[in-house]
Amino acid sequence: MEPQAYSAMVRTNATRFLFSLIYSAGTLVYFALPVWGGLFDQEYGFSAAQIGWLLSADMTSNAIANVSARYWIHRFNWQRSLLTFVFVFVAANVACMFYQDFSSLMLLRYIAGFAGGAMVSIAVAGIASTENPDKDFGLALSLQVFLGGLLILSSSALVDILGAESMYIIISIPAALCIPLIHCLPAKMVSQEDQTRQASDEFAHGKTLYLVLAFTAIFLFFTGMNSLWSFAELIGSELGVHDDLIAISLSASLILSVAGSLLAAWMGGKTERLRAITLGTFSTILSVLALLFIPGGWLFFLAINIFNFGYNFIIPFQSGWVSKLDNSGKNIVMLPAIQGFGISLGPILAGTVAEKNGLLQITYLSAGFLLSSIVVFTALYYLQNRSPLIANERS
Fold first, then answer.
1. Which stretches make up the Major facilitator superfamily (MFS) profile domain (predicted)?
2. What backbone phi and psi angles, to 5 degrees, belong to 234?
């Protein structure tokens, strides 16, 4: 291999790894939510409603950052932008170590969440521009799940040794590791003016309603999933499950979730999206409700594993459905924001329900949102089938 070709290959692989690392660093906080739920309750003594607001802060500002990225991602220098956002992300997390009052933590979590969301926007835009984005998104997801599972599995030991505040430093480490590789990042993204014009044509052909329905269904889905996931540790404790088994259950479920996405990749194109989404969502609903009617430590382990397996199994079919409605890619960039808004609303609603009616009632809240998601997806499916404009794009 020629030296120049080898150098280009190394740089390309380093860039692809950097995109995966940025994506993982910006989303790692999601995997810390169940652990933080316990810390805010046991260490800081916050109410269930306050915990819900704190757990939603990162996700809310993350989604805001995704939306705002539409207006700067093509204009600003990526290297300088990433360096700035990494610095803000790390600084806000370190500052959290010195504050234990609700208002200060809320503000700092919003700042850290916005910086993390901006980092994810750069990563997603970069991965989408690679030669094989499907493969690179898979690599990013694999690294994300690995780090998330490692975080949850080791959280109890790390908190015992280093203290509760150490979690803020731990989630900052992957972001800090991006700094030595920033030189591998492209300076800017290629202009997509042609895609913007194509997107306008799609709206002119009447796809706006279908996109709204798809985004609504996805929003309901993520609200339902995260309402339970954010309080999974506390629900396990309420059911009398041992702390070690809770930690093992949560970490194992994240590893198993990779199998869900791999199964979805194998089934892609072989089955209707609505059928796959319905099957996966109903399995998830049954696992959630099983926590109420069949109590037990190992049942909790099984239910949480089915829950996260279904999570990653369903998402690829949802994303594929939206991409079919928006071939230009202009509107699918809103997908992380829609997911983020659902992720942020879930713990707020769950915290309110838990404070008024008890932790176990969150299971009914989660199941209700998931069922509503299926209803909207079904409506979208039948509306598409009645439309002659996109008869060749039925899902």
1. 12-386
2. -70, -35
The per-residue pLDDT for range 220-243, each reduced to its tens digit, is 999 999 999 888 888 888 888 888
CATH of the domain spanning 193-395: 1.20.1250.20
Query: Can you give the C-alpha Rg of the chain in angstroms?
Result: 21
Contacts of 165 (CB under 8 A, 6+ apart): 96, 97
Q: Which amino acid is at 213?
A: L
* In contact, 43 and 159? CB cutoff 8 Å: no
Continuous H helices in 326-361: 335-357
Average confidence (pLDDT) per 10 residues, the chain, 395 residues: 44 84 90 76 81 85 86 86 96 90 92 93 77 67 79 77 80 94 79 46 63 94 92 86 83 81 74 89 90 78 90 81 64 77 89 90 94 96 75 51
**Which ranges in the chain are annotated with CATH 1.20.1250.20?**
11-191, 193-395
Torsion sign (Cα): 320, 308, 112, 168 = negative
| Close Cβ partners of 190 (under 8 Å, ≥ 6 residues apart) | 129
Cα dihedral 79→81→83→87 (10° resolution): -170
Q: How far apart are CA 252 and CA 244, in angstroms?
A: 12
Cβ-proximal residues to 12 (8 Å cutoff; 6+ apart), any chain: none
Cβ pair 216, 318 in contact under 8 A? no
Tens of pLDDT, residues 127-166 = 767 666 656 766 777 788 778 878 877 877 877 777 777 8
Task: Give the Cα separation of 207 and 179 in Å (integer).
Answer: 41
Distance CA 160, CA 151 (A): 14
Give the separation between CA 123 and CA 198, rounded to whole angstroms: 24
Phi, psi (deg, nearest 5) at residue 380: -60, -45
Residue 261 token pair: 């996405």
Closest CA to 338 of 175, 226, 193: 226
CATH 1.10.760.10 assigned to 11-191 = no
Q: How far apart are CA 207 and CA 118, in angstroms?
A: 28
